Amino acid sequence: MTNQKKMPKTSDAEKENKIFDLTKLRLSQDFSETAGVKKVILTIPTRKPGRQDFFRVHLSDDYYLETAVLELKEERETYLIDPDLWHELPGEIIPKALFTTINRQGVLTIWPVRLPGPDGRHDSWNRSALEAAQMAKKNWIRMAANMSLGAYEIYKAVAELPEPEWPDMTFQKIIEIAFKDNFIRRPDHPVIRQLRGEL
Amino acid sequence: MKQSTLSQFKEIWFVDFEFSSPPGGRSVPICLVALEMKTGKTLRTWQDDLQYMTEPPYSIGPDSLFAAYYASAEMSCHLTLRWPMPENVLDLFVEFRNLTNGRQTPCGNSLLGALAWFGFKSIDASEKDGMRDLAIRGGPFTWDEKIALLNYCESDVQALHGLFLQMAPFIDMPRALLRGRYMKSLAKIEHNGIPIDTKILNQFRKNWGVIQENLIKKINNEYGIFDGLTFKRTFFENWLKKTRIPWPRLESGALDLKDDTFREMARTFPEVAPLRELRVSLSQMRLSKLAVGKDGRNRCLLSAFSARTGRNQPSNSQFIFGPAVWLRGVIKPNSGFALAYLDWSQQEFGIAAALSEDNLMIEAYLSGDPYLEFGKQAGIVPSHATKDSHRAQREQFKACVLAVQYGMGAESLAQRLGQPVIYARELLQLHRSTYKKFWEWSDAAVDHAMLYGKLWTVFGWTIHIGKNPNPRSLRNFPMQANGAEMLRIACCYATERGIKVCAPIHDAILIEAPLEELHSKVAAAQEAMSDASDTVLDGFKLRTDVKIIRYPDRYMDRRGVKMWETVWDIVERIANG
């Protein structure tokens, strides 16, 4: 298993006693052969990275989506809306980019960042967040809001940290888990009815 | 055990000796009963005949199986009688421990307890105690006493036979014989014992009361935590505040005053070490109980396979390598001899690296300084960093590596480092991300244990998961228990190669040699230890460190030096009136 050379045993008794051929008595210590355990991800938060979290954004465009979401500020909830319903919610839905992120603790999240409006205008918070997302594709960074600056400040890890280990999951699956209770596909969804004043 | 495994033996002998064993002395056989399973032949021999026999009255060759309960006792009788040892030893005590390790054994691990486990009743426990007391009392024996002892011995042999029949389906024979081989080796080690400076020990014993009083006075002048002879928590709390030492607390908020905590804290805060030594000396040390024979050697039952990890667990008060490290200063080679203390370097790290086959961890071990190498591999220090250039960081990496080995969390590590918890958490995270393969392997071991209810070592020492499994100790089991395997195999190799081993101690052995043979014996012992690591780790050899103590020097553990000097100072003052 290593470059170390095996030394011959010196005792005659050891050589003669075949019952003690210890190499044949070794039991495997690789318990993964039998343990057969795989982490199952059932929760994927939808939020921006915490101010203390160093994180990475998935480099592949396959793990990125530009879409429209509905944000209920008071409930701090984000809903994904079926494109067929966008017309039902004028002025409520917001165009957002959904980035797939992972922090140093291996926690997978979906990070929604507001995209510029049709006029191309973008506030400094969201502009700095998009820049951070681009940077996080190749660097471990953390970002913290600076109120007087009116934007996020980005801190890049100086140490040579290892690349993130992304779970073996499709983006489709990630989105399904992240929005499993927060996907609006029907016009009579309680959230839409509430916004219409029907509830 | 398959019938075919048993059929390889032409004879299967169940053997029991009754013997007396004065504290610290060697076993003196009183009588022997042996029963051969296939023929039913029974041998009953009294000590008058035993002493004239040059070999045992039963077959001990490669075609025979010798079965006993705690076989090192029978083997020590062989050594006293100068009989050769059996080729194949099956110790049903060891196999019962292996079968039930981690499980509740309501009646204990004695022969009676093992029989009770299988639902059998042997002789009455009180009758057994009475017979044992009679054997310990020693001769001369009346005719009736002789018959009673022989009958009792025979009843044990029959019980042993009955137990064997019950246990046979559970015995993994080739590995059981490997454990039996260790019991032979252990008998030789117990037979040798550890040389003690009895003159000094007797001085300590004679003046122990006065020494204790003076020790408290002396230590208290510096620490102010005793009121008379009583350790005061409030005073200790004040001292901690003054010295700004962050002491661990129990859930209740009270200070954690367990010895393990003192030992752990003494590693981080050296000023705690004398306190810990004093507390151990006052609470646990009974100098009169230290088992030293008339020949000036410390001998006691090393209690093989008693710990869950399979390690020895000798009595703290009888064994010189008990918790009071300063007292080890009474270990002294005889004139013309030397002792050598050999231990594996970073044994647990090496085991973890080899068994998990984590290449970065293996590289770190092979670098000679796994702690600094971890820092380099994690990218915290540059590749040209040395022990001298990055001393402080190395200490932190060391603490982190050890914390992982002890299963310590971020809070405890932070306490040890004197750093915020977030820093300790990041350090532990770096360990996880650097040694990914090790962590996968370690996680799988815990998962396996929790799924299937047991874990085992490379040679089959098994831990069964009880009702309240402790994931931390399960995670540590492969390192600790394979470390125990390694020590047992090293003891076998060393004793079989003619090295005089005085004691096995956790990850070390103490050997003795005439001064003129010291060099070759130390080299041979190192080779035995290296071969043992090779055997357990499938070709990976661990390094060893050696500390030599030549007559007239004495053994000294650096953790006990200050206490030894303090005690010695008191003894001299007493001697000078």
The appropriate CATH architecture of the largest domain in chain B is: 2-Layer Sandwich
Domain unit count of chain A:
1
CATH superfamily of the largest domain in chain B: Ribonuclease H-like superfamily/Ribonuclease H
Poorly predicted residue ranges of chain A: 5-12
**Cα-based radius of gyration of chain A, to the nearest Å:** 26 Å
Which stretches of chain B of 5+ consecutive residues score pLDDT under 50?
Answer: none
Mean pLDDT over the residues of chain A: 84
Q: Please identify the oligomeric state.
A: heterodimer
The CATH topology of the largest domain in chain B is Nucleotidyltransferase, domain 5
Which percent range fits the helix content of chain A?
10-25%
CATH class of the largest domain in chain B: Alpha Beta
Mean pLDDT of chain B: 91
Biggest sheet architecture of chain A:
6 strands, mixed
Order of helices and strands of chain A: HHHEEEEEHEEHEH
Task: Note the beta-strand portion of chain B.
Answer: 5-15%
Shape of chain B: globular
Query: What class do helices, strands and sheet pairing of chain A give?
Result: alpha+beta
